[in-house]
User: Which sequence fits this backbone?
């Protein structure tokens, strides 16, 4: 298994939107390499003939009828927000584009 | 402001390069509730009043799949000629954005509900294209962002943004085509026609209102160019914000011209998302596609697989409505319209309305004339959709009144005005406005006599055999009757009384 | 009187309430007093419910009026801070949710309230349930009531400590890789992880969606059963919750007290989890003694080989971080929680990144980065994809095992409570605390930890873990109750009676800078 580099960790931190400090990146790089080494052994038994299991319990077709339920009030919806204009959540300028 | 893109002449571009198209169309489903929560699914409303903890992505909230959305998706997949998955599952598409309440979207990745289909698209001149469909899958919509402080209300230069999650969680089906080859210079037309076919299809199924102007139907257009004969595909761009059929056509045309100019100059196309600007008729560069687009898809652990019931699939398949192209062919034949006449109706988006009016008893040609004529004219002045102004039943009633002689065309237009204004049915308006054609001969005769008496010189001419002179009398009578007379009958009476 | 009330089991307290020997107000007050007296040392609670007495009073009124009340009505209960409560902050042990009061109740909490239990407060936990010692709580660790210098286990150290210290007769916890069972083992209490899907996850702040379960924490098997009966069952808001009706677990626990319950029971000892290397000697010893007790009672014990269990921790530490990295993306400063705005004109991307940097602790960051890695393009198949295959193998090993036996047993944790701070610098060694409990989460089978003694070398509690097939939670209660009685007969009294007294003199010692 290839080693994790600090560039990779920096890239991952960006994907995960965490502003890690350079110290943190360095420390994490070491820790993660170590961890990844030990967990990589899963590939030993994960042969092509073994199917993956996403859910411990199999229950197909869990569906809900198309019937309206209760919604939050606007006040409840906004209740935890750090910043609003009274009816919408407010955020600072956006850099990226919509997906 | 970026320098203007160089554009190659369109025909030259097509001569030198082969365009390859692809479309991702998002259809908002007309279910009562959202995809994964039981908040109502409707357009509008005060911000953030149409949300549950699930739609806000509050900690601890969990999604539950809407069975009607599944049904609609299967129905749509069948109508696209797709195979329906035996087992279908949801996946998380992970990316951060303020309108994305969980910072992942629940979508479908490796096991979409429908795949491998084909849609027939007919162009204006009857040319047919088979558009291959890669897949149709279910996903949820994001919230709505409003950008404040910038010049155009767009992201660039905005001071801050406001988020409304009312739309977050609304059910979407994304229809993805395979690369579309062979359109050549008809590519722009084909694009517009394809989106229109999708719109007609989802409306016919009743799974979506599909109004592009409301965002119920959204189109992203992918275009790439390659030299004719080359097998390797060129780099493609994805153009968003294409909000009407016309925009689809224009955007494709623009991109072909823009890309051709770059390639001819020895340049390379940047793989990126572009934004269509309706006002300037150009696309502009968005964010380049990069590593930042690693969505890290994995199967949604909070949801279980959807295993469609084969019996339900067959039931839906059996009740699929006629494909739009086949339907058009049939109606054109039934109505006996000439090509251009039929095209008028289709281009005006009035096929449903004409069909309904005929069903309500009106002759097809009359229905066509009214819908593509006066009603469309009024619709344009009001910046509204013709179908919103008046019901087919009322139009049929109006036509009947004209056919029976109760109304002249001119009177009928006044009645229509009243119906549109909400004064009631055509009969009611005739009554309340007193617009009926006077068919009482005695009243007409009196008016004719009066007019003849008032213009003795004209009377003399008529007696003399100069029948055309009757026109002046007819005009006078029509005026005195405020148009509420059958001009032909008036003419008869004028000639009769003049000779008397 | 206070002391007497807090020493009662929940079942005994419930009986006393029904008999009107004590009121809910008295019972609640007694526990609030106990919290006031000892929680300065123990730090099990992050928040005490100001309205507890009000709730207790209304239960008393309803009882007086002759209302039909649930079996546990009027009994106080502590709630792990991972669960959303609409009248108390729900932080999941993190700074990023400091002070956040949800606009809704988690389903298990709603069920508690409907059943008339009295929420006492929210208990401490490792941040976002990531940890096995509660040292990763952003609000300071909880101290093991058996020895305040030691860990109470994790991530649900607060709930276990609260119950062990008699601050509450019952508590709710959550278990993703052992977070109920392992604290149970090191605090001498009972903890149960239900079958996956047995209790609704709606309102439980998600860590790893395919592994999390909410479950009961108590001092006796019957108490845990009574609480499990209240919180379990289908919830249409949780797609992964099981639809089937569950039998009464309290009935199963009572049933287990019949003579000869264990006779002929086929018990499997999982070779890979049976002790020896990686296990503290005293833990192994007590486990072997427990197995001997089972045999003496007529159980047939066989060794079970589950080779895939050797890969379970590795699979777990790929699946969990992957799911967690996605589940924790919602903490972005926009709709709730902390917002940190860096200086000088920050974009929302900057604000998100600064907020998460400030709001998440080191273990959370570690796992998010690891999880993001495991899901990345190019690494998915090798890591997350492979881990999901190990999961299949673990399930198969359990299936095979349960063809041969009715119950599986193992130690609940490899060691007793070690000193606070001992493993903070070595994440990998931390992960080994969950060695015996992780397989049950991967497979979705239910597991229970009950105290099975004090380790001879340090006098600290050890636990034995029982596991049953999916949906057979009743077996845990039946056989757990039977085993509990045998153990207590051997000891002469419940193990928890041997917990040292916590009093004010200890409080000042703790303040002098333990951890």
Assistant:
């Amino acid at each position: 298994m290839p080693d994790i580099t600090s560039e990779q960790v920096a890239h991952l931190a960006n994907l995960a939107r965490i502003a890690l400090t350079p110290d943190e990146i360095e420390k994490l790089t070491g820790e993660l390499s170590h961890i990844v080494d030990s967990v990589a052994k899963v590939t030993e038994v994960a042969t092509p003939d073994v199917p993956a299991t996403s859910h411990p319990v199999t229950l197909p077709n869990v569906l809900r009828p198309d019937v309206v339920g209760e919604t939050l009030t606007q006040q409840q919806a906004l209740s935890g927000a750090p910043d609003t204009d009274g009816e919408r959540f407010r955020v600072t300028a956006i850099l990226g584009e919509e997906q | 402001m970026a320098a203007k893109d160089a554009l190659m002449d369109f025909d030259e571009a097509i001569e030198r390069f082969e365009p390859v198209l692809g479309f991702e169309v998002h259809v908002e489903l007309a279910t009562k509730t959202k995809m994964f929560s039981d908040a109502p699914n409707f357009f509008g409303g005060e911000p953030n009043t149409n949300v549950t903890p699930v739609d806000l992505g509050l900690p601890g909230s969990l999604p539950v799949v809407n069975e009607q959305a599944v049904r609609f998706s299967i129905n749509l997949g069948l109508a696209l000629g797709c195979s329906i998955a035996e087992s279908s599952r949801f996946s998380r598409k992970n990316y951060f954005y303020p309108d994305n309440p969980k910072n992942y979207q629940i979508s479908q990745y490796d096991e979409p509900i429908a795949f491998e289909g084909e849609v027939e698209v007919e162009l204006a001149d009857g040319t047919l294209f088979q558009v291959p469909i890669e897949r149709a899958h279910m996903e949820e919509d994001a919230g709505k962002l409003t950008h404040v402080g910038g010049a155009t209300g767009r992201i660039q230069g905005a001071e801050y943004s406001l988020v409304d999650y009312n739309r977050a969680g609304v059910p979407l089906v994304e229809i993805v085509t395979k690369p579309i080859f062979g359109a050549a210079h008809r590519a722009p037309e084909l694009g517009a026609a394809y989106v229109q076919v999708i719109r007609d299809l989802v409306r016919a199924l009743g799974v979506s209102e599909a109004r592009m102007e409301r965002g119920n139907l959204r189109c992203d257009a992918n275009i790439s160019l390659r030299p004719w004969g080359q097998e390797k595909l060129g780099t493609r761009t994805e153009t968003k914000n294409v909000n009407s059929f016309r925009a689809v056509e224009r955007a494709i045309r623009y991109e072909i011209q823009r890309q051709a100019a770059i390639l001819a100059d020895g340049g390379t196309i940047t793989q990126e998302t572009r934004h269509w600007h309706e006002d300037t008729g150009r696309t502009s560069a968005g964010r380049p596609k990069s590593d930042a687009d690693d969505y890290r898809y994995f199967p949604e652990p909070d949801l279980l697989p959807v295993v469609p019931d084969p019996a339900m699939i067959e039931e839906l398949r059996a009740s699929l409505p006629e494909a739009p192209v086949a339907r058009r062919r049939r109606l054109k034949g039934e109505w006996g319209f000439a090509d251009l006449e039929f095209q008028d109706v289709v281009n005006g988006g009035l096929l449903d309305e004409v069909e309904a009016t005929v069903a309500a008893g009106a002759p097809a040609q009359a229905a066509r004339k009214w819908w593509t004529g006066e009603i469309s004219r009024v619709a344009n002045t009001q910046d509204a959709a013709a179908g919103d102004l008046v019901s087919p039943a009322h139009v049929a009633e109006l036509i009947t009144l004209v056919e029976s002689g109760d109304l002249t065309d001119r009177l009928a237009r006044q009645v229509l005005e009243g119906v549109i204004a909400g004064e009631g049915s055509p009969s009611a308006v005739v009554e309340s406005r007193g617009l009926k054609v006077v068919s009482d001969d005695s009243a007409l005769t009196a008016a004719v006599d009066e007019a003849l008496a008032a213009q003795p010189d004209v009377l003399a001419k008529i007696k003399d055999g100069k029948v055309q002179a009757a026109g002046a009398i007819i005009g006078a009578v029509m005026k005195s009757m405020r148009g509420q007379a059958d001009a032909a009958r008036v003419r008869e009476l004028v000639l009769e009384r003049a000779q008397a | 009187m206070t002391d007497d009330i807090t020493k009662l089991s929940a079942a005994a307290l419930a009986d006393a309430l029904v008999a009107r020997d004590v009121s809910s107000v008295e019972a609640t007050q007694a526990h609030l007093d106990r919290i006031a007296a000892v929680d300065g040392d123990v730090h099990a609670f992050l928040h005490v419910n100001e309205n507890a007495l009000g709730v207790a009073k209304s239960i008393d009124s309803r009882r007086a009026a002759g209302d039909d009340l649930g079996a546990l009505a009027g009994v106080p209960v502590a709630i792990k801070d991972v669960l959303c409560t609409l009248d108390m902050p729900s932080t999941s042990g993190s700074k990023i949710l400091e002070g956040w009061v949800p606009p809704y109740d988690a389903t298990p909490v709603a069920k508690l309230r409907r059943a008339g239990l009295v929420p006492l407060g929210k208990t401490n936990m490792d941040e976002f349930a990531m940890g096995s010692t509660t040292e990763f709580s952003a609000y300071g660790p909880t101290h093991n009531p058996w020895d305040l210098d030691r860990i109470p286990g994790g991530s649900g150290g607060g709930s276990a400590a609260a119950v062990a210290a008699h601050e509450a007769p019952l508590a709710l916890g959550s278990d993703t890789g052992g977070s109920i069972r392992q604290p149970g083992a090191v605090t001498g209490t009972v903890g149960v992880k239900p079958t996956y899907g047995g209790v609704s996850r709606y309102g439980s702040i998600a860590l790893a969606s395919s592994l999390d379960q909410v479950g009961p924490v108590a001092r006796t098997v019957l108490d845990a059963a009574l609480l499990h009966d209240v919180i379990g069952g289908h919830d249409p808001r949780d797609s992964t919750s099981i639809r089937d009706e569950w039998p009464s677990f309290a009935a199963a626990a009572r049933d287990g007290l019949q003579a000869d319950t264990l006779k002929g029971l086929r018990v499997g000892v999982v070779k890979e989890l049976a002790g020896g290397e990686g296990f503290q000697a005293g833990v192994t010893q007590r486990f072997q003694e427990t197995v001997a007790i089972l045999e003496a009672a007529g159980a047939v014990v066989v060794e079970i080989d589950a080779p895939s269990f050797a890969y379970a921790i590795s699979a777990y530490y790929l699946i969990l971080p992957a799911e967690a990295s996605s589940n924790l993306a919602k903490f972005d400063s926009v709709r709730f929680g902390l917002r940190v705005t860096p200086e000088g004109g920050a974009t929302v991307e900057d604000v998100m990144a600064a907020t998460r940097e400030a709001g998440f602790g080191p273990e959370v960051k570690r796992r998010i980065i690891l999880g993001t890695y495991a899901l990345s393009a190019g690494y998915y198949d090798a890591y997350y994809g492979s881990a999901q295959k190990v999961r299949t193998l673990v399930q198969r090993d359990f299936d095979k095992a349960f063809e041969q036996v009715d119950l599986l047993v193992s130690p609940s944790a490899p060691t007793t409570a070690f000193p606070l701070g001992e493993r903070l610098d070595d994440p990998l060694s931390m992960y080994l605390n969950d060695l015996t409990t992780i397989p049950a989460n991967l497979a979705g089978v239910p597991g229970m930890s009950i105290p099975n003694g004090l380790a001879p070398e340090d006098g600290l509690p050890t636990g034995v873990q029982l596991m049953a097939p999916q949906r057979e939670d009743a077996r845990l209660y039946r056989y757990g109750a039977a085993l509990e009685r045998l153990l207590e007969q051997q000891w002469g009294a419940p193990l928890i009676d041997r917990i040292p007294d916590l009093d004010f003199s200890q409080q000042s010692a703790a303040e002098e800078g333990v951890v």
Summary: The domain at 1-44 of chain A is CATH 1.10.20.60 (Histone, subunit A). The CA atoms of residues 15 and 99 of chain A lie 15 Å apart. The mean pLDDT of chain A is 91. Strands of chain A lie at 63-64, 89-92.
